[in-house]
Amino acid sequence: MPDGPDDLSFDDFSAWTHRQTRLIADRSTADIHSDLFIYMQAAKLVEEVGELHAQLLGRSKLQRRDKGQEFSRTALEGEVADVMICTAILAQAAGVDFRAALRAKMHTVDGRDQAEDVRE
C-alpha cells in the first residue's frame, strides 16, 4: 500500500479495488460477475452518491440541521473516495476496463472542448 496520498498510482488503486471486490463477493451470496452482484454494487454507488450529496449540502450550509450529521472537509473527502471506490468496483464487476474507459472519456471530453474553442 502506498505510504502517503501522493504515492497512490492508478495501478495501486486498481489492485486494491480488485482485492476489495473479491472480499465483498466472498461476504455476499452473489458471484462476482453475476447481475445480482452488479446491481448490489450499483445500489451501493447510489448510496455513496447520496452521502456525497449530503456532504456537499452541509458544506454549503444547505443541509437541514435536524439531520444531525457532522459536515467537514475530511467527511467530504471520504465520500468522494467512496464514490470512486464504488465506481471502480462496479466497473470491475461489469467487466469494464476502468482505465480504458477513463482514457476514452477524457479523449471525448478533450475533443468537445477543442471543438468549442474553435467555434469561439
Automatic annotation (TrEMBL):
SUPFAM superfamilies: all-alpha NTP pyrophosphatases (SSF101386). It comes from the Bacteria. This is NTP pyrophosphohydrolase MazG putative catalytic core domain-containing protein. It comes from Actinoallomurus iriomotensis.
